[in-house]
Each structure stands twice: as C-alpha cells, then as structure tokens.
Amino acid sequence: MANETLDATGLKCPLPVLKAQKRLKNMAAGERLAIMATDPGAPADLKALCDTRGHVFVSEEEVGGTFTVVVERNA
User: For residue 14, what pLDDT is reported?
Assistant: First the structure.
C-alpha cells in the first residue's frame, strides 16, 4: 500500500506535517507515504498539505489513538 513509512507518533503539530512534507519531497511521483501520528489534528493537517501541494490524500485510519494517513506524491 505504501512505499515508505514515517513514524511521527508522539510529535505535536506542526512536526508531523513538516516531516511528511520533507519526506514527500524526496519521493517520486506516484509513490505513497504512510504517516503514523498520535496528534489528533494530524489527519486534517495532512489533508490540508495535500490540498495545497497537489498530493493525493489516499486514506486515513485510526486504531488505538494512532492515526495512519497514506499520501500519494503528485508530480
């Protein structure tokens, strides 16, 4: 499902988004990044990142207080 995984658990906003943005910058178009975060605002912040940068917000899942968001890098 994802080419790479970013563990941002324990980090507060805006760190999960900043780390995801940095990682996505080094990925090829079409590759997917799974971001794991415990900050409840992270999914909305990552969706906003996708909206502003043109990436695709693929999915969001929450299990036991950990959110996993998958983002596909756009060209």
Answer: 95
Q: Return the axis-axis angle of helices 42-53 and 15-25, rounded to nearest 10°.
A: 40
Residue ranges making up the domain that contains 12: 4-72
Convert the pLDDT of each residue in 49-75 to its tens digit.
999 999 999 999 999 999 999 999 997
Using alpha carbons only, what angle is made at residue 73 by residues 72 and 75, rounded to the nearest 5 degrees?
A: 140
26-50 pLDDT, tens digit each: 999 999 999 999 999 999 999 999 9
Q: Into how many domains does the chain fold? A: 1
63: domain CATH number is: 3.30.110.40
Q: Show which residues are catalytic.
A: 13
Residue type, 25: K
